[in-house]
Amino acid sequence: MSIFSRKSDTATAEPVFDAATTAVEDITGDYTIDASHSRIGFSARHAMVTTVRGAFKEFEGTARIDAANPAASSVSLTIRTASIDTGSADRDGHLVSADFFDAEKNPEITFRSTQVEKVDADTWAITGDLTIAGTTKAVTVAFDETGSAQDPFGNLRVGFEGSTAINRKDWGLTWNAALETGGVLVSEKIKLEFDVSAIKNA
Length: 202
Hints:
The protein is mainly β. The protein has 1 helix and 11 strands, in the order E-E-E-E-E-E-H-E-E-E-E-E. This is YceI family protein.
């Protein structure tokens, strides 16, 4: 099994959702991310005991998919930094402050692919430049195809789910507070999560 695979090794695991559909065998084409049916999320450990989750509410992106020649594929994503939402106004205010993202000076988080590979029949590895708070570092995200569908409005949709882990200190997001019991208030490692629905351009 590929190291990029996110599928369960347990053959008896019950599926969480209905089975995926396949509207087309070849998903080659140019696509626009449907932000209203997609999610860009993240999770971090808080006080070493629990996981806090959040998401960015405003983003846009495009993708060129070439199934026959994956290296010719590309992805571009722009996120509005101030659209961060963790369910706590106070926490969100801290995250957009100069302690973290400094959203006033850095209004956008961007990702631009530099390499696309097909790992197996359903999995893609997308490497690119992730820019956060003015710092750019390369990251690789493993994406699984989750199906294709013709929606009631005549759109051809494709779905992908992916995730990766980063160390926020690599992007200069170093704020923290030490705990008396050891450890820190906010984990340095952050998990990024992508649930993408993209519509093929006419």
